[in-house]
C-alpha cells in the first residue's frame, strides 16, 4: 500500500533548518531513519516508507560551521524537531553507519525517559563517537578518512570519496552513487571535520542497555567493507535487551543487496517489541 509523503523543513532548537520526509500512519510507532557520514536521506529512496531526515550539515539541511552547533545536544534536538514536526509517538530510531551514533545523543538529552523511544536499530552501525569509530570501522573505511578530512589535495579527496561510495555497495545504481558523491562534494570541509571529531557522552546510552528499557537490534553484514558489525556489537557491552543478527552476504547497504532479509528482520523485531 502506497502512502503520501509529507516533506517539511523543520527548525531545530538553535535555528538550524532540518529537511525531513515522512509517510504512512503517524499515529502508529514509526521508524525514523538516520543516514551515514557525508551522505543524506537520499540513500533510503529505494526502500522509503516511513520517516527520514537529512542530519545537520548534510543534504538539504543547514550547514552550520560553528563549534557550538556540533554539541551533542544539537543533534538530539534535530531528532526532536522531526518527532514533533510529524507528531510521532514513541518512534523507533534506525541509525545506519555513523548515523547510529545519534542514538547516543538522543539518550543523553533525554536521560531516563523510557517512554520516548520504542526501540533502537543499529544497521551496520557505529555505536558511539571517538573510540567507537576505530572499533567499528574496517581498515578500508579507516584508510579513506585521512583523505576525506584534509583540505589541501582535491584529487585525494575525490579519490577517497569515490572509493568510499563504491565500497558501500556494488548493488548501488549509477544514479544513487552520483547522488552520494554529490553529497560528499557539497558538504563544507569544516562540517566534515565536525562530523568525525564531535564529542558525546555515552553514559545514558550504556545505562539504557544495562537497565534493559531500550530494546536494541544490531544488524551486521558479513560482506560489509565499511563497518565490522561483530566488532561494533561487541562494543555495546552488557546490553540486556539486545538482539544481534548477521545477514550473510550482505554489504554496507543491505537494503540494496539483501532487501527482503533486512526488511523481514526489522519487521519481525518491531512486532516482537510491540507485542
CATH architecture: 3-Layer(aba) Sandwich
* Helical residue percent band: 40-55%
Query: What structural class do the secondary elements suggest?
Result: alpha/beta
Question: Secondary-structure element sequence?
Answer: EEEEHEHEHHHHHHEHEHH
- Spatial order of the strands forming the largest sheet: 1-2-4-3-5-6-7-8
Total number of domains: 1
Mean pLDDT: 94
Rough outline: globular
CATH fold label? Rossmann fold
Count of DSSP E strands?
Answer: 8
Organism: Armillaria borealis
InterPro entries: AB_hydrolase_1 (IPR000073), AB_hydrolase_fold (IPR029058), Carboxylesterase_BioH (IPR050228)
Protein name: Alpha/Beta hydrolase protein
Keywords: Hydrolase
Give a concise summary.
The protein is of the alpha/beta class and 275 residues long. It is built from 11 helices and 8 strands.
Throw out a few tags for this protein.
alpha/beta, globular, 11 helices, single chain, 275 residues, hydrolase, Carboxylesterase_BioH, Rossmann fold, AB_hydrolase_1, 8-stranded mixed sheet, Alpha/Beta hydrolase protein, hydrolase activity
Write the layout of secondary structure elements.
Layout: E1 5-11, E2 17-23, E3 31-34, E4 51-53, H1 72-85, E5 92-96, H2 102-109, E6 119-123, H3 131-136, H4 139-149, H5 154-168, H6 174-186, H7 189-197, H8 203-211, E7 216-221, H9 229-234, E8 242-247, H10 254-257, H11 259-274
Parallel strand pairs: 3-4, 3-5, 5-6, 6-7, 7-8
Antiparallel strand pairs: 1-2, 2-4
Verbal overview:
With 275 residues, the protein is an alpha/beta fold. The protein has one domain (5-274): Rossmann fold (3-Layer(aba) Sandwich), CATH 3.40.50. The protein has 11 helices and 8 strands. Helix 2 packs across helix 8 and helix 5 crosses helix 6. The longest helix is centred in the last third of the chain and has 16 residues, at 259-274.
Amino acid at each position: 500500500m502506497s502512502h503520501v509523503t509529507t516533506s517539511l523543513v523543520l527548525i531545530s532548537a538553535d535555528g538550524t533548518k532540518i529537511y525531513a520526509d515522512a509517510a504512512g500512519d503517524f499515529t502508529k510507532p514509526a521508524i525514523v531513519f538516520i543516514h551515514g557520514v557525508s551522505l543524506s536521506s537520499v540513500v533510503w529512496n529505494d526502500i522509503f516508507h516511513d520517516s527520514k531526515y537529512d542530519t545537520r550539515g548534510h543534504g538539504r539541511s543547514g550547514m552550520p560551521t560553528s563549534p557550538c552547533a556540533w554539541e551533542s545536544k544539537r543533534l538530539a534536538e534535530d531528532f526532536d524537531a522531526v518527532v514533533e514536526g510529524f507528531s510521532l509517538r514513541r518512534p523507533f530510531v534506525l541509525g545506519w553507519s555513523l548515523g547510529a551514533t545519534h542514538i547516543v545523543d538522543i539518550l543523553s538529552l533525554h536521560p531516563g525517559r523510557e517512554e520516548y523511544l520504542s526501540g533502537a536499530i543499529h544497521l551496520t552501525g557505529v555505536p558511539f563517537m571517538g573510540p567507537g569509530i576505530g572499533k567499528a570501522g574496517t581498515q578500508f573505511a579507516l584508510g579513506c578518512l585521512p583523505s576525506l578530512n584534509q583540505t589541501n589535495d582535491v584529487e585525494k579527496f575525490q579519490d577517497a570519496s569515490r572509493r568510499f561510495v563504491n565500497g558501500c555497495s556494488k548493488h548501488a545504481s549509477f544514479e544513487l552513487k552520483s547522488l552520494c558523491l554529490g553529497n560528499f562534494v557539497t558538504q563544507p570541509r569544516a562540517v566534515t571535520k565536525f562530523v568525525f571529531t564531535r564529542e558525546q557522552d555515552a553514559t545514558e546510552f550504556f545505562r539504557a542497555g544495562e537497565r534493559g528499557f531500550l530494546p536494541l537490534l544490531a544488524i551486521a553484514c558479513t560482506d560489509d567493507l565499511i563497518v565490522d558489525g561483530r566488532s561494533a556489537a561487541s562494543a555495546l557491552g552488557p546490553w540486556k535487551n539486545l538482539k544481534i543478527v548477521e545477514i550473510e552476504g550482505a554489504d554496507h547497504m543491505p537494503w540494496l543487496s539483501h532487501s527482503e532479509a533486512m526488511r523481514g528482520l526489522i519487521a519481525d523485531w518491531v512486532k516482537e517489541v510491540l507485542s
